[in-house]
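Ticket reopened. Same input as before:
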Amino acid sequence: MQFEVLAKCHTTRARVSRMRLAHGVTMLPTFMPVATQAAIKGLTPQQVEALGVNLILNNTYHLNLRPGIEVLKQAGGAHKFQGWNHNLLTDSGGFQLVSLSKFTKITEEGALFASPFDGEPTMLTPEESISIQHAIGADIIMQLDDVVSSLTVGPRVEEAMWRTVRWLDRCIEFHQKSGKDTVQNLFAIVQGGLEPDLRDKCLDEMIARRDKVAGYAIGGLSGGEEKDIFWRMIKQCADKLPDDRPRYSMGIGFAEDLLVCVALGVDMADCVFPTRTARFGVALTSKGPLNLRLGKHAKDMRPIEEGCPCPTCSSGMTRALLNHTATLETAAAHAITQHNLVFQARIMGGAREAIIDGTFPQYLKQFFANYFGDAGYPEWCVNALRSVGVDLLEDRPDAKVISGDGAKWEYSDAA
Amino acid sequence: MTSRPLSTVAFTGSSSSGKYGPRTGRIRIDRQDGTPILHTDTPALLTATSRGLVPHLSRDNVHLTQAIRHLQLPFESFLDRNPPVPTLVGGTHPLHTLLGFSPDNHIVILTLRDPSDGRKMPPNGTDFVSGQCTRGVRKVNLTAWKNYAAQCKPDLVVALSDTPFTPAPHSQKRLTKSIERSIAWLADFLRVSPADPSATQPRNVLVHLAGGIEPSARSEFAERLSEPIEQKDAPGLSPPMNTLNDGVAGYVFDLLPLHTALAADVSRSEGLASLDDDLLHASHHQRSSHETSTELAELFRASLDPLPADKLRVINSPTSPHEILRLVRDVGVDVVDGFWAQRAADIGIALDFRFPAPRHSTPEFSVKGAPPPLARKDEKLDLGHNLFDPRYRHDHARLASSFLDGKSSAELTPDSGSPLPMPVCSCHACSPHSPASRMLHSPVDVHAWADVSPSTLQPPFVRAYVHHLLHTHEMSAHSLLVMHNLTVFAAFLSGIREVLRHGDTAGDEFDREVARFEETYDERMSLWNEAERMWLEVEHARGKGRLAREKEKQAASTIGTAVDL
Ligand SMILES: [Zn+2]
Ligand SMILES: [Zn+2]
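Engineering reply: fixed in the latest deploy. New output:
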């Protein structure tokens, strides 16, 4: 991996970087769409490329079950299997083991789970996870970590943090011996729950191994914890992680979360949210999410968003036709997915441009004013951005501020 | 309503064997509004739509698929709002504008009902037809339909007709009523208000040839079409229109109700238990055979006997390519709807057949190692591959053995000029190209794409990948299959045109090729039964054990809906 920071925001911790991997250059900060099963919902890889996206995520747990490693090897790896010529990241599979199977048991050796095919006890070790990710062939691979819910408290959190460090060592060793470390890049995952001193210890340990890892992920968050704690954890990690390594915030996808994370120094994020919400008929716009199933859109001949360059809006697709077809036709989901991915890409592209131009604080203020102007600013966003020198409420003394986790969008059909 | 649809539709066809026989032709659409005049060679493909969309295809993929040229737009789904949304669009091409079709390339045929949806419907009335939308059944009367057509300005429009979607058999009285109504409704549709001097006679109207499976009733309907217009109908039906037939651009044959009625006939005469009488499945119970094709051809000829040969003939919902070939051979049909191929994509089938059929003696079957479809016990080949089948798990070949993919064809012909061993499937699944351009979201994004060449031929998507997508419920499977199946189906029709172009001997050659096709490919469609069964199994395994009966019915009778979001 070649990683080069091209520009830094003069106020916040945000930065623009160029990351060169085996399948090309990706500009950071960026949002990574999730292709769990080796396809972005309903789209072809060519359609995804056309949207200006060149780094996507596959899920190791799922691909290991189906199509299975043997098929991927026959195809020459996951890139060739799915026809994707650009960069690819895989997770370790550990998170899905814990979230999809209630029988998974963590031991020092690895994660013990019941095989979804025959119920037989099966072990996913750190070495096995890396080996599977080698067969998949992603440009960025993740260490197996001991994931605990961000709501867990007590000694289990510390245990998981230390085990994650030990598993990182096993992943590094296996990865280096395999000889794949020249093509595939291993990322460490910082754990430690919501406890600052555990995070700090984890950061120390992992930074000590910086020469053996290509980048760092911040794990164990966005699992239902309070947003005010979430951003403090991100900030603590991003502040301490080395400048010359990309920082990846796992499972982040809401627009406000993305921009706060970027301002705190995060370079990469992924989430199923924009593609999943599209299937339910929700389109993302600069004025907040739009539930196209609502009756009020039935005769609305405007596009989802005026001026949006996505294939959906630029083809003249109206809210009315999306209202007519959303959740009933797969092609409506495709259309909204295309739009939502472009929305995510534009937020991040706009951030890159503003950071380079030295206008990122204004960009943040403008975005939040549009997005939350009517609904009210989430207090945690105001706090988080103040911590890096941007006051969203400056010049807006009358702005409404919502405490807690912020605006609740109207998703129900009131019409 | 002052503005009538303006497009004029002309059809010129030629057959070497007289009024009934294989024929090629050309459709000419002149919208008289400055857009290019569109020509299509026939027999041609009519792509089915659902709720205004080609199922599983986003707009960019519709435009990538050259097979999509004529689109059939059932209006009924839009009856959920009043006034219906397409009537609110305005402009010169409201349907193209609303639905994202290109006036320079796409021809839109507007019809009230989805011709492939055979679900039971409440009876029609003396001046209305019942249509289906998400809010239930809606009545559309003659005036409303005339207004909708005037507001939507389709390239072609099908007049309302009274087809019973109540359980067969239908009494003589019901058939007589159906004919009376259909004639009166057509006359009304063609009538121009005398109060409006600017109105012109529509020249783009298609009419269903009514009469069900009674040859005498069909003849009677056709004779009524060709009778001199009665005085009482005269106001607004002006010369040069001397008969109602003069006012129509072509004829529509809906095969679904005919197949259903024929099947009911057989089970009655054989004393079998009656078919599920509230469900006229397009896929279940309806398989074509020599016998049904012969019966259909007789029924079509009963309709066409009194009528001139120079009008367009459209058939909806054929059930197999065999049936299409025999109707081309024995009647002469010009436009064929794609429901059958599109439905195959819903249930995981990748079509793999050609007309003329490949010759076993040539080595072409093994080119670049794409295994041909399965041979059944009688050695006839399947028409495609059921990609749900576990046998495809490790099959890394392109979708069709009878077509090359773009990449291997490019490798086979390095300027050598030697002919390809077989045609190329130009669909996006077999011959994908990288995009011509990518969106840039910031000025530094040029770094990201500097080394990536645009519009470059990519390797084909393979069976193992689509198999994987089907088993993981990924919608992309169906997008790829629809593009492929429509392209294979269009190539089949183009193969028919090619053989018929061979001049005087074309008729004989065509007959021989039809016979060879029938010998080569399985018409019993065992593959379809298997694919539908596996599709249901995968649905069940997914924890959707009891599909609601309504949903199951809808999935079987309308395309697109078999796939869960
Ligand atoms: Zn858009
Ligand atoms: Zn193809």
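Chain A touches chain B through 70 residues (CB under 8 Å). Residues 170 and 408 of chain A are 43 Å apart (CA to CA). Please confirm and we'll close it.
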